[in-house]
Amino acid sequence: MIDQKQLIKVVGNRPTGGYYTLSFNGITTGPIPHDANTVEINTILKAAQLEELQATGSMTTNTGITILFTGQYADDHQPTIIVNSAELTT
User: Contact at 8 Å (CB) between 59 and 73?
Assistant: First the structure.
């Protein structure tokens, strides 16, 4: 089984304030602070019952966030995660 990954990255200036949300399979997370770290992002994913999506990274880094699909979502093509960044400021 090969876990699938998606990369979420800011194009242009990195955010300096605000929050964003992630949507996957009709489920939307609560607000994720612009500077949330890996632990904080994964806690918010778990609260949204998306614990089989595991995040590494941050929106404030050049590398962005990598989402790893595990469990029932592993080894299968997944729809694109939707990022609502309307509340981010730069």
Answer: no
